[in-house]
# Entry
Amino acid sequence: MNVKGTTELLGVIGFPIKHSLSPVFQNAALSYMGIDAVYVPFEIRPEDLKEALNGLRLAGVKGLNVTVPHKEAVLELVDEISDEVEKIGAANTLKFYEGKIVAYNTDWIGFLKAAEELTDLREKKVLVLGAGGASRAVLYALKKVGASVLLWNRTKEKAIRLAKEFEVSVIDNLEEGLEMAEVVVNTTSVGLKDEDKPLFDYGRLSEDHVVIDLIYRETPLVRAAREKGCRFQTGFPMLVYQGAESFRIWTGCEPPVKIMKLSLQDYGYPTESPRTPSRT
# Structure
């Protein structure tokens, strides 16, 4: 890394932020492409967000990724929002342009591109677990490709509100939903810790299920999917693809996705597909 007076600044804001892997693959991409820029993490407390964002703008930052807990709060502090941000209600990418801050959401397209490594989601019946912010991006993506969505959340009222907004179906019985679904997507934080109580009896998975867990590590759900012979995926591919789309927005360049993936192998990024990808 050769930082000079001409070097542009990109980064990611969140609280906490020390766990973020975005600097790893974004800096690998910038270096590979020969772009004179550096990508750094900024840990910003929620109460300091407005002041920090203005400071970063004044300091000449060209672009930011936004992660928890700022994805919704930044919408009150930007000058423009994209169409997908308006629908999803959250932003994960900011571009600083001619004194303005424009908000985008690349989580949805990151999810779609990652899922394409496993299956074609068009017209698939997809069971989505959870009704939080990550779920909103996933639902937006699934509606874009015409998937049939079954939504489940531990707090049913929250699922009902979200289902009305995205025009999807809510289910009460998770086991029945599993029998109907071809694809299972976990958008909750359950599985982040091994001691977390399972969302359902993972033994009910069949080898015909496609399982996607947005958590980076191999969760008990992913472990069960592996044992059952399912096609499965952790959150690593989505992380890379959403970051790649942010890279495209900031630089106007085609992102070097392969380089981004390779940079994360020491952090657990899978080096090979668990099963042969299928379009069926």
Q: What stands out?
A: Residues 236-251 form the longest helix (16 residues). Residues 87 and 165 are 9 Å apart (CA to CA). The chain has two domains: 8-105+240-267, 109-234.
